[in-house]
Specification:
By secondary structure, the chain is of the alpha+beta class. It has ten helices and three strands; from the N terminus they run αβααββααααααα.
């Protein structure tokens, strides 16, 4: 699959995003200038050479691609009459913490200080990544719920395996990691062809399964 095919299959281009969010380009630009809406996950720049009956034409074109879950975030910030950056962060923080608690109630949790004492600082950092478009690339849809699931899953694997430095795992450890991998498989992006070898999916799913002979 080519890069363009991958992006067209898994992301909204800008026109599709605007239609899905029921906004125009001016509103999108305004939100991005305010720092309350994610930047594109990918931007393609193409030098085009077009040949036709009338001769040769050359031009440069750009395509922006956004996570398909961005429309959900657009509806959320649209529900606020005047959504300021602080109000947008509060929405993000509340949704992050709500899903973190939901996962804990489902028995999927990590006792790392990232999700306890350092939670406020951690979510502030993740908010910046969210706005910069990182999670539109690394998760399947850019949903906040996927961000939380991916982060908890990766942290569990890092803590149990000591960043894959442990040689053997207990049965209990393997079961906990299998649960983490199931969440990661659901939440992590499949990544563009040129990124897969160094992606989170390769590092935390493929490598973990292969190194510890796990079946999920």
């Amino acid at each position: 699959m080519s890069l363009f095919e991958y992006l067209s299959s898994h992301y909204y281009d800008q026109n599709q995003l605007l239609e899905s969010c029921s906004i125009d380009i001016e509103q999108l630009s305004h939100w991005q200038d305010l720092g309350i809406f994610p930047k594109p996950a990918y931007r393609l720049t193409s030098q085009i050479e077009c040949s036709s009956y009338y001769g040769l034409h050359e031009c440069k074109e750009y395509w922006d691609f956004y996570a398909r879950g961005c429309d959900k975030w657009a509806k959320l910030i649209s529900s606020k009459e005047l959504c300021t950056p602080s109000a947008a962060f509060e929405l993000f923080f509340n949704k992050y913490c709500t899903h973190l608690m939901y996962l804990q109630n489902q028995g999927f949790y990590c006792e790392d200080e990232t999700f306890t004492e350092q939670l406020q600082e951690h979510v502030q950092t993740q908010w910046q990544h969210f706005i910069n478009g990182k999670f539109s690339l690394t998760t399947q849809n850019g949903y906040i719920e996927e961000i939380v699931e991916a982060e908890v899953g990766m942290m569990i694997i890092m803590n149990i395996t000591h960043c894959h430095s442990v040689d053997e795992l207990t049965v209990e450890d393997k079961n906990e990691i299998r649960q983490a991998i199931k969440y990661l498989n659901k939440s992590l992006s499949h990544f563009a062809p040129h990124e897969r070898a160094q992606s989170y999916r390769a590092r935390f799913i493929d490598k973990t399964i292969a190194q510890y002979d796990l079946s999920v």
